[in-house]
């Protein structure tokens, strides 16, 4: 999952992970996993992310001020194993009601193609408000041990440098799961997910416990997996504010699937409940690691 909050342009950055989907804080927060360790997590043989499709119902949890008095929505997230890459599609639909009674329908359509070695990402984000286009972000990016670069084609063609150690969404998920399984209390990798045209984000990830199966999940394919709670905060590199732009909590399973979402948009928070879930197919031959 991915994310920042604020106006609707930022709401599309709500999950990469998660989904969910990238810290100036790295210098002052403890429990950090250094970039070399994070880079190694990309190819970790013990991290087996699963192709799947998940649908979530979003309900209003709390109102903390501002103009929004009601919110509801849905989110679908699909991961497809494309042999040498992961293809992801996420659609977030949110309806909010203001204090004056105005209703706004917000849609974020997000798609990526990420190489399994974690070094190349093609991305597209399209956001609309009441059917009117708000923003469109497209391009591709590369990253590696010494850094990388983003080449945007929309909204305006331009390039942005990526710092060394920056992770793309699926690699970010793998890094979280590996750190949780090793008992680390937190990590702080940089993330680029393709939801904004201003480059990478800082993330601070708190790992709140990792336990073996069975879990309380009602889906048998998940109940037999190790799982644990995770809290991810997202920060703008240029900001000196200790408050995150966006934060999300979730339960992660060892295959990268999430449930029990807590999404903080600043003025209000929403709870995400996993309504339906199915595992996807692997490439021909039956082995997703040999195509």
Q: Helices and strands in order, then pairings?
A:
Blueprint: H1 8-11, H2 35-41, E1 52-63, E2 68-81, E3 85-98, E4 103-115, E5 120-129, E6 132-142, E7 148-154, E8 158-162, H3 169-181, E9 186-187, E10 190-191, E11 201-211, H4 220-223, E12 227-235, E13 246-253, E14 258-264, E15 268-279
Antiparallel strand pairs: 1-2, 1-15, 2-3, 3-4, 4-5, 5-6, 6-7, 7-8, 9-11, 10-11, 11-12, 12-13, 13-14, 14-15
Keywords: Membrane, Transmembrane, Transmembrane helix
InterPro entries: EipB-like
Protein name: Cell envelope integrity EipB family protein
Short description:
The protein has 291 residues and is mainly beta.
Task: Give your account of this protein's structure.
There is one protein chain. This protein is mostly beta strands. It has helices at 8-11, 35-41, 169-181, 220-223, and strands at residues 52-63, 68-81, 85-98, 103-115, 120-129, 132-142, 148-154, 158-162, 186-187, 190-191, 201-211, 227-235, 246-253, 258-264, 268-279. It is globular, with a radius of gyration of 18 Å. Residues 1-10 and 12-45 have low confidence and may be disordered.
């Amino acid at each position: 999952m991915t994310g920042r909050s604020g106006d609707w342009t930022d709401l599309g950055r709500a999950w990469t992970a998660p989904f969910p989907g990238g810290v100036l804080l790295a210098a002052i927060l403890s429990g950090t996993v250094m970039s070399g360790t994070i880079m190694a997590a990309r190819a970790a043989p013990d991290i087996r992310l699963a192709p799947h499709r998940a649908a979530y119902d979003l309900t209003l949890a709390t109102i903390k001020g501002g103009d929004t008095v009601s919110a509801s929505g849905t989110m679908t997230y699909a991961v497809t194993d494309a042999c040498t890459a992961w293809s992801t599609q996420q659609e977030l639909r949110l309806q909010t009601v203001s204090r004056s009674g105005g209703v706004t329908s917000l849609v974020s359509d997000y798609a990526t193609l990420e190489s399994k070695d974690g070094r190349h990402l093609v991305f597209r984000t399209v956001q609309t408000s009441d059917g009117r286009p708000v923003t469109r972000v497209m391009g591709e990016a590369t990253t590696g041990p010494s850094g990388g670069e983003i080449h945007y084609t929309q909204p305006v063609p331009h390039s942005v440098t990526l710092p060394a150690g920056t992770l793309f969404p699926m690699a970010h998920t793998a890094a979280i799961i590996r750190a949780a399984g090793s008992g680390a209390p937190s990590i702080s990798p940089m993330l680029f997910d393709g939801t904004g045209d201003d480059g990478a984000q800082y993330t601070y990830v708190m790992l709140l416990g990792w336990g073996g199966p069975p879990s309380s999940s009602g889906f048998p394919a998940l109940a037999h997996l190790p799982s644990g709670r995770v809290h991810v905060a997202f920060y703008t590199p240029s900001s000196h504010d200790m408050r995150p732009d966006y934060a999300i909590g979730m339960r992660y399973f060892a295959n990268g699937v999430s449930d029990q979402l807590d999404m903080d948009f600043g003025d209000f928070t929403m709870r995400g409940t996993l309504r339906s879930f199915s595992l996807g197919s692997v490439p021909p031959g039956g082995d997703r690691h040999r195509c």
